[in-house]
Design a protein that fits this description.
Layout lengths: L11 E2 L1 H9 L10 H11 E3 L5 E3 L1 H8 L4 H20 L1 H4 L2 H20 L14 H5 L6
Antiparallel strand pairs: 1-3, 2-3
Helix pairs in contact: 4-6
């Protein structure tokens, strides 16, 4: 497999783009400092096992919903149904590996959200334990 080849259903971001995002001040929002910009960029990207950067749309999703936990949980529920549909009809997707990658990505995001600060008891603004809400959204 070539270094630039992507075999899983994610949006790859080339290393040259990542480097430019970190160094080209003209790409940063007005009056923002590098630290804040890099935190935003890092929130939106992840690195796969092969070292390829990709858009982490599930992690970025929470911020897109202005940290509205109910909307984020609804989004994860829709994503779960989408992936489960693909797992059932994997021939439609062309490859079971893509569906499995999405399943693992989805569950890893949920596990990370549940663990939150590391205490395992992350709580949303309404006082509900995130684990109680997010655990049923895992894909089995």
């Amino acid at each position: 497999m070539e270094a630039n080849e992507v075999n899983f259903p994610h949006i790859a971001v080339g290393e040259e783009i990542v480097t430019r995002l970190k160094s080209d001040e003209s790409l940063w929002t007005e009056d923002a400092i590098l630290r804040a910009e890099m935190e935003l960029i890092e929130c939106m990207m992840a690195v796969d096992d092969a070292g390829q950067h990709y858009i982490d749309y599930l992690r970025a999703g929470l911020g897109d919903f202005d940290y509205d936990f109910d909307r984020y949980a609804e989004f994860l529920g829709r994503h779960k149904r989408f992936v489960e549909t693909g797992l059932v009809g994997a021939s439609i997707w062309g490859t079971r590996a893509a569906c499995d990658w999405l399943k693992n990505y989805h569950n890893a995001r949920i596990d990370e959200d549940i663990q939150g600060s590391g205490s395992g008891a992350a709580v949303d603004a309404c006082g509900r334990a995130m684990a109680a809400v997010l655990t049923p959204l895992r894909i089995v």
